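Thread title: Can someone regenerate the structure for this chain?

I was given the following input by a collaborator and told the matching structure tokens would be attached. They weren't. Posting the sequence so someone can regenerate them.
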Amino acid sequence: MLALVTGASSGIGLEYAKQLACDYHTDLLLVSNQEKELRDVATFLSETYGVKAIAHYADLSKTEAAEDLYKYCQENNLQVDILINNAGVFFFNPYVETSMKRIDLMLNLHMVTVAKLCRLFGEDMCRRGNGYILNMSSMSAWMAMPGIQTYNATKAFIYNFSKSLWYEFKTKGVGVTVMTPGAVDTALFGLAPNLRKLAVNLTVSIPPKKLVKRALRKMFKKKKSDMPGFINHLCTPLLKHTPDWLVFLVMKYIGKYQK
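Best answer:
Regenerated them for you:
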């Protein structure tokens, strides 16, 4: 089997590549816009686990990125059995202070390219009668929160798009799974080690290794969607009905924190 993993040079994407190589002995097509890091990862995985690992540098935020990647696979006779749409970006900004370039980047990367890759590789999978697609959404898909308005909206698109595809592709023998994790235990938010440990213990945050292991297990079972963490399940209904006064309070706090 061959797995195409986007955003595979670091973070959660790298963890997907590692576990697919180690636990499932899957050949890999690794895609990222970090060329050197990607080549190093491909070499490491190939030498360590004895799998075929191809490093393919690409900027997936470009409008034609999906078509170009699909064409590359056709020209090199690469049959993609597993598609993991993991590549993503995050930034916190008031909308009118966000450059058009960054807005385009997020919309294209999270929505346009994901939708096109599912269309192109999904057609081949449906024709063969088997395959797996895993899309990474977020618990923030249910949040209306200033500062991350574009991120939340794109993650909501991924969530609803993936669940709709699950119904269409299931009858063709192809699984489409969408993951909606809350916080992931990385250094992204700059929390102290003791607070990170507490968040993990409360299941508010999840270690990348544990998240990926769970996601792959759900994917191979062709589950529709999954949200890790008991607390996250309890919080989701509240996120949908967050009172306005609380949102403004959070905005005020974040504004002071940023200063």
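The chain has one domain: 2-258.
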